[in-house]
From TrEMBL:
Annotated keywords: Disulfide bond, Glycoprotein, Immunoglobulin domain, Repeat, Signal
Similarity comment: family membership: Belongs to the immunoglobulin superfamily. IgLON family.
InterPro entries reported for this sequence: Ig-like_dom (IPR007110), Ig-like_dom_sf (IPR036179), Ig-like_fold (IPR013783), Ig_I-set (IPR013098), Ig_sub (IPR003599), Ig_sub2 (IPR003598), IgLON_domain (IPR050876)
Matches recorded under SUPFAM superfamilies: Immunoglobulin
Name of the protein described by the UniProt record: Ig-like domain-containing protein
Organism annotation: Cyprinus carpio
Recorded superkingdom: Eukaryota
Key word Repeat present: yes
Location of the Ig-like domain: 1-79, 89-165, 174-250
Length: 294
């Protein structure tokens, strides 16, 4: 139902002897006698010249032909208007926010009503916000992490402003260490090793020296902030120089990379991204550690 009042106007002259309003073949008013049982329908008369029909709260079922029929001494005459009811678009069903693993097939739903039937369009609200498929269902085969985000469903039919709803899609994927920074530190100074990973859910971090898992102590501090971790060696000694391993894990997988603490003058490139390695013992230790936490 639409909150609109409609007036269908009909004007007559003083030569008219009989007058009536009809909807299709149904009589609504004959003269001033109301035949319709619909309380929304009323007659509007201004003196003897106007014989108009008013419909409150117009409904889609009111669509159709309306006829003002008059009888004069010479001949009957009719004047007809066809009422077309247009309805603004309304989205009445949209998919809930979802969390899926990378590689899954995803179907997003957006159902809308309106007259004329609304057109459904989809967009992924990333920086480019490019248009996607048109239709009630958006199919994504083998979703990847770049397709995560906020999806916009828009229903339009040019009757009114479009109706818009949103679906948030989270894509889980295993960790990937995207940046490490080694440290060139003199003896007696604090050495800081950096490690940053990308993962959903957020990764957990561990640090290793050779085959020994490190934990915070007086000489070593492990700091974790979101997707980044730091290994701080407070007072570097000759024994501290060497290869360290940063391990990032979540329930979908594991990734590790080598980071180096080395003496000044050795010529190592401290801006290199680090050597990514996959050692069997390190993977096994990390998996066992994750199992022990469960």
């Amino acid at each position: 139902q639409i909150s609109v009042c409609l007036s269908v106007r009909c004007y007559v002259d003083d030569k008219v002897s009989k007058v009536a309003w009809l909807n299709r073949s149904n009589i609504i008013f004959a003269g001033e006698d109301k035949w319709s049982l619909d309380p929304r329908v009323e007659l509007v008369t201004q003196g003897q010249l106007e014989y108009s029909l008013r419909i409150q709260k117009v409904d889609v079922f009111d669509e159709g032909p309306y006829t003002c029929s008059i009888q004069t001494k010479q001949q009957p005459k009719t004047s007809q208007v066809y009422l077309i009811v247009q309805v603004p678009p309304v989205i009445y069903k949209v998919s809930d926010d979802i969390i899926v693993n990378e590689g899954s097939n995803v179907t997003l739903t957006c159902l809308a009503s309106g007259r004329p039937d609304p057109s459904i369009t989809w967009r992924l609200l990333n920086p480019s916000a490019e248009a996607l498929d048109v239709g009630e269902y958006l199919e994504i085969s083998g979703i990847v992490r770049s397709q995560a985000g906020r999806y916009e469903c828009k229903a339009s039919n040019d009757v009114s402003t479009p109706d818009v709803k949103y679906v948030n899609v989270v894509v889980n994927y295993p960790p990937y260490i995207k940046e490490v920074r080694s440290s060139e530190t003199p003896v007696g100074q604090a050495g800081v090793l950096h490690c940053e990973a990308s993962a959903v859910p957020q990764p957990e971090f561990e640090w290793y020296r050779d085959e020994r898992r490190l934990s915070s102590s007086q000489s070593v501090s492990i700091q974790i902030s979101g997707s980044r971790t730091l290994l701080v060696v407070a007072n570097v000694t000759e024994d501290d120089y060497g290869n360290y391993t940063c391990v990032a894990t979540n329930r979908l997988g594991i990734h590790n990379a080598s980071v180096f603490l080395y003496k000044p003058g050795t010529g190592r490139d401290i801006n290199a991204s680090g050597c990514v390695c996959q050692s069997f013992w390190l993977l096994l230790l990390s998996v066992l550690s994750a199992l022990l936490k469960c």
